[in-house]
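Figure 2 data, in text form.
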Amino acid sequence: MKGPPPAAAVEEVRRHGESPFRVPCVPPPVLPLADEPHVDDWRRYGEEAGRELFAFLQGRLPQLAIPLRPGISRTTAYRDVTRRGEAFTSAAFGGRLELDEPASLRLAIEGHPAGALPVLSTPCRRDFETLLVALAGRHEPRDVSPAVNAQLVSGLVNWDRLGRYRGAWLAAQGGKGAGWPAELARVEAEEPRRLHDRLLLACDRPYSGVAAAELELAMSEEEWLRRSRVFRVEHELTHYACRRVFGAMRTNLLDELLADVMG
């Protein structure tokens, strides 16, 4: 294109590069930040699950039991489980979600100055895609770019914790549940982290799906795979830190550059 770019294009690029971060933070954060409430639950899940991690999590988070199927998010059964917390039954869905390599699924709690996060990881690419669509894609099958090998999942309703909170609340009310809808609305508005989890999904693959040989790195593929996991997890934790410390987390060139540099 000859001549200067149109003013509208220049303005669009300028807006894209604007920082949404609250800098400086007032008051400044005191690091390390306290872990969010859900981290203790996930730490306990890791201790209690034993060798059957996936089956254990399916019993706590019904989202992990719903199979992937086109149109499934528009069904009554789906809404009953994901929005109302009703028990999952295989009969209502014609089966249950399965992984190719459930024994390979791992759960770790990754520490960070902005707070720890649970990390679910697997070496099986198909299982990673399955988990990603189940937890962040409303169980509607879709293609996942081979360059995507990690995803920070936010806003995941933890029906296990919500059920325990409801039981304690009802006990305090003498078993009277008429006020529960109002209490749930209050918690959603004032204490959303009491009900919603954040976790990181990761797949054991080279960073951005690019092999060490393609990048002409002076290291083995095994070493590059090990470093890729460090980069990937730190990249996503940086996004998480930007959200907690600076108040913003976006899919944006500036944010991605910051996350890659930290990784």
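Caption note: Residues 132 and 173 are 39 Å apart (CA to CA).
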